């Protein structure tokens, strides 16, 4: 794709919990974020018993996309790239939904696989961070993407069909999970993790996505860490999760102060993160500000998805 010396591009991410519009200023080899607009659309909550995204869910997606269009028209971008993740991967009527979105908004939505999402996460994260050896984790609303990497090379990428929103929807009756509901969440996560085969052992976790950024924000708040701290200590995560599960008043007050729009999903998301840290003997989680949207932008502007990182130094293994 030929770019001007300085161009603006939009990226829309249709996720299970949130829909996001990000606008970037780009050059021939780099980019920077100019605007980030989020809507807590909660599309996973519109999946019916037959696995279809309901008519109300489609209307919600169309409404949010049109609001994003209004912003894009007023800013004037070169192009806008739109993709969907587990929000539509998990819908049995995905083709019908994509057609409806095309008809009502004009957007051609790229429905990406879980494995491709994990690779794009890695591409985005390595644009900011030099990732040498570890596990990349993206906890979304409807799925979690995992990518094991070594020396800048992705060894294996997988996706599991559990995320912060669908764990909440499946197991929690009230706003916050009870002790018994948390145990059911843990059992479901452990059962799913047994199904995947990934190289293990003492891996640093690089976390991307809203759930992990929110967990970091909570830790920073409770432990009086600098607001720009991007590291979650494993012991602090364990202690905070235990306290929030045990003291509901403390949990509500803390979440409302730091991340009110995630009050129902943050504890399921943090529980999933804690179990992943346990499985991979991880004592520290490094949080990246970039993820799948930035990886998708890189794939469109700077080359194929075999590349990883801002300098295109890394590749997926076996390619």
Give a short synopsis of this structure:
The chain has 319 residues and is an alpha/beta fold. Helices cover 42% and strands 23% of the residues. The protein has helices spanning 55-75, 86-89, 94-105, 114-125, 164-171, 179-193, 210-222, 234-246, 248-258, 266-279, 292-301, and strands at residues 7-14, 19-26, 31-39, 79-84, 109-111, 133-139, 144-150, 153-160, 204-208, 231-233, 284-287, 307-308, 314-315.
Protein traits:
6-stranded mixed sheet; disordered C terminus; alpha/beta; 11 helices; 319 residues
SSE diagram, text form:
Layout: E1 7-14, E2 19-26, E3 31-39, H1 55-75, E4 79-84, H2 86-89, H3 94-105, E5 109-111, H4 114-125, E6 133-139, E7 144-150, E8 153-160, H5 164-171, H6 179-193, E9 204-208, H7 210-222, E10 231-233, H8 234-246, H9 248-258, H10 266-279, E11 284-287, H11 292-301, E12 307-308, E13 314-315
Parallel strand pairs: 1-4, 4-5, 6-9, 9-11
Antiparallel strand pairs: 1-2, 2-3, 6-7, 7-8, 10-11, 12-13
Walk me through what this model shows.
- The protein has 319 residues and is of the alpha/beta class.
- The strands form three sheets. It has a six-stranded mixed beta sheet, sandwiched between helices.
- It has helices at residues 55-75, 86-89, 94-105, 114-125, 164-171, 179-193, 210-222, 234-246, 248-258, 266-279, 292-301, and strands at residues 7-14, 19-26, 31-39, 79-84, 109-111, 133-139, 144-150, 153-160, 204-208, 231-233, 284-287, 307-308, 314-315.
- The longest helix has 21 residues, at 55-75.
- It has eleven helices and 13 strands.
- Helix content is 42%, strand content 23%.
- Strand 1 and strand 2 (19-26) form a beta hairpin.
């Amino acid at each position: 794709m030929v770019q001007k010396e300085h161009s603006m591009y939009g990226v829309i991410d249709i996720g299970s919990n949130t829909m996001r519009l990000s606008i970037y200023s780009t050059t021939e080899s780099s980019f920077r974020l100019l605007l980030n607009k989020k809507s807590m659309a909660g599309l996973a909550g519109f999946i019916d018993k037959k696995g279809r995204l309901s008519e109300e869910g489609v209307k919600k997606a169309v409404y949010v996309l049109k609001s994003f269009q209004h912003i894009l028209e007023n800013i004037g971008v070169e192009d806008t790239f739109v993709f969907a993740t587990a929000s539509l991967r998990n819908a049995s009527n995905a083709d019908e939904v994509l057609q409806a979105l095309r008809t009502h908004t004009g957007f051609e939505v790229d429905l990406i696989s879980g494995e491709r999402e994990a690779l794009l996460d890695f591409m985005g994260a390595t644009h900011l961070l030099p990732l040498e050896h570890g596990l990349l984790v993206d906890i979304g609303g409807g799925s979690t993407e995992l990518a094991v990497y070594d020396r800048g090379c992705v060894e294996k990428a997988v996706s599991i069909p559990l995320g912060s929103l669908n764990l909440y929807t499946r197991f929690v009756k009230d706003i916050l999970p009870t002790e018994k509901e948390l145990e059911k969440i843990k059992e479901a996560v452990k059962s799913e993790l047994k199904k995947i085969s990934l190289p293990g052992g003492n891996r640093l976790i690089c976390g991307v996505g809203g759930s992990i950024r929110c967990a970091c924000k909570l830790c920073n708040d409770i432990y009086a860490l600098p607001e720009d701290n991007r590291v979650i200590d494993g012991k602090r995560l364990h202690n905070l999760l235990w306290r929030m599960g045990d003291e509901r008043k403390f949990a509500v007050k803390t979440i409302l102060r730091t991340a009110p729009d995630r009050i129902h999903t943050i504890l399921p998301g943090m529980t999933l993160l804690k179990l992943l840290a346990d499985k991979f003997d991880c004592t520290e989680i490094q949080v990246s500000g970039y993820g799948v949207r930035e990886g998708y932008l890189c794939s469109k502007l700077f080359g194929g998805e075999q590349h990883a990182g801002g300098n295109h130094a890394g590749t997926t293994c076996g390619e």
